[in-house]
Amino acid sequence: MGLVPAGLLASLPDDLFPHTVTLQQGRTYANVSGLVDLEARVVPVGGSKRMAWALSQGASHVIYLRGHYPTASVKMRAVSNGTNYNVIAVEHPAETMTTLAVATTAPTG
Hints:
Number of strands: 7
Distance between the termini: 31 Å
Radius of gyration: 13 Å
Mean pLDDT: 84
Low-confidence stretches: none
């Protein structure tokens, strides 16, 4: 996904963001207020130019969040469908959405 104009992001079909992601932080991995059950798309890192920045960070996956979340940071982890991901890089393309480069860690539960 490239840069998305602000008005277009809300009009994208829901099936483009089939996952939910919760961002957590701190020693106990507490949920971050306002960053719980976010609509997202979680995809393995591939060889496309768009994913080059994630590959250069050592990411295993990229998480595209449906919306701009400026408080998301590398001091957090993302949890989706029982899988934990350490956030290793964050992008805010044109301040219309947030993209996370993440590395898989141990499962939750």
